[in-house]
Amino acid sequence: MSPLFRRKAAPQERLVTLIRKSGCHLCDDAQVVIEKVCGELGVPWEQKDITEDRQLHDQYWEQIPVVLVDGRQHTFWRVDEGRLRKELTE
């Protein structure tokens, strides 16, 4: 099947990753949005601590919190609920 006609993954087949660190108020704010949107859509999500992974630290330190959708960067600093919902459903 051509990549142009690939079936879009259902929300439950997606994965949202929050890259964060402890004590980061923007990270806490991002987590609230992710929990809400992913909970409503049935999307699994995970969080990774930037202080425990050197590669993540080197790549994202100046951008945290960073949100990945299916391993690709979706946003950083602030998470827009509508934009995340749209990404996961369209």
UniProtKB/TrEMBL annotation:
<dbReference type="InterPro" id="IPR036249">
    <property type="entry name" value="Thioredoxin-like_sf"/>
</dbReference>
<dbReference type="InterPro" id="IPR008554">
    <property type="entry name" value="Glutaredoxin-like"/>
</dbReference>
<protein>
    <submittedName>
        <fullName>NrdH-redoxin</fullName>
    </submittedName>
</protein>
<dbReference type="Pfam" id="PF05768">
    <property type="entry name" value="Glrx-like"/>
</dbReference>
<dbReference type="InterPro" id="IPR052565">
    <property type="entry name" value="Glutaredoxin-like_YDR286C"/>
</dbReference>
